[in-house]
Structures are given as C-alpha cells and as structure tokens.
Amino acid sequence: MIVCSCNVLSDHDVRNAVSAASDLPRNPKQIYGCLGCSAECGRCARTIKTIIDEALGACAKECCSGCPHTRHAANDEPAQETASSFALAAC
C-alpha cells in the first residue's frame, strides 16, 4: 500500500528501512532520510510513525537495556545519549 503519495513510498519501503538501518529510524524524518527523500506535504507522517512503531514492536516506546535495537545494549552507552547521537548517514 502506498503511504506517501508525494514520494511514492509503500508500507513495505518503510518497514524495510526500519529493519535495514544499523541505527533504527524512530521517526518519519529519519525514514525519509534513509530512503533518500524528504517530507513534502506531511500527511503521511502519522501513518509512517505507526508503521515504525509496529515494525519495532515492544521497542517502539522505550528500549530496555538488553534490547538489540539500541547502541545502549552494544556499547553500554546511556539510552538518552544514544537517541541524541543518531546519524542519518548510518542508513
């Protein structure tokens, strides 16, 4: 299903971007960056956020210390620092 008409992004594109990125994208802006585009009208942002949350499952709201989806688990960094140091270049 197409979720972003402006950039012709499907729900599969969004799910693939979430699973393929080394630092998991957690918001629509990060997804756009991973997919090489940017938000145009913004009407899809809420839908993209919902797809991200579904794809991340229990990690969508807050990752715990043992979660494999965060650098916190791999590098023993505090979760707050991990979130602020996210780089789109990793996509």
From TrEMBL:
The keyword Transport applies. InterPro entries: BFD-associated_ferredoxin, BFD-like_2Fe2S-bd_dom, BFD-like_2Fe2S-bd_dom_sf. Transmembrane segments: none annotated. Residues 2-54 form the BFD-like [2Fe-2S]-binding domain. Gene3D superfamilies: BFD-like [2Fe-2S]-binding domain (1.10.10.1100). The keyword Electron transport applies. It comes from the Bacteria. Keywords: 2Fe-2S, Electron transport, Iron, Iron-sulfur, Metal-binding, Transport. GO terms for molecular function: 2 iron, 2 sulfur cluster binding; metal ion binding. Belongs to the Bfd family. PANTHER family: BACTERIOFERRITIN-ASSOCIATED FERREDOXIN. This is Bacterioferritin-associated ferredoxin.
